[in-house]
């Protein structure tokens, strides 16, 4: 997935992609986000897109490096724990 395709995600979908989705492999599609939380469409400025183009690939590489040694069960457990933390933070 390129940095540009991530920009087309709603904020809650992006969170699912970057955090629990990156951990568990779960991805929201279509309008599924309504089942999992609130969401808003946002528009990123040209400067914002340029910044994301610079930082997002490194961020995603770092995330995968951290998660690569983890088993599927460990990733699922981490995703569940992150979901609990997120739920209590809201």
Automatic annotation (TrEMBL):
<protein>
    <recommendedName>
        <fullName>Winged helix DNA-binding protein</fullName>
    </recommendedName>
</protein>
<dbReference type="InterPro" id="IPR036390">
    <property type="entry name" value="WH_DNA-bd_sf"/>
</dbReference>
<dbReference type="InterPro" id="IPR036388">
    <property type="entry name" value="WH-like_DNA-bd_sf"/>
</dbReference>
């Amino acid at each position: 997935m390129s940095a540009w395709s991530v920009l087309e995600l709603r904020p809650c979908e992006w969170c699912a992609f970057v955090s629990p989705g990156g951990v568990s492999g779960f991805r929201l599609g279509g309008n599924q986000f309504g089942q999992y939380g609130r969401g808003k469409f946002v528009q990123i400025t040209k400067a914002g897109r340029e910044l994301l183009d610079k930082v997002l690939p490194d961020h995603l590489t770092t995330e995968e490096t951290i998660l690569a040694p983890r088993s599927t069960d460990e990733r699922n457990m981490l995703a569940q724990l992150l979901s609990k933390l997120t739920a209590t933070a809201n």
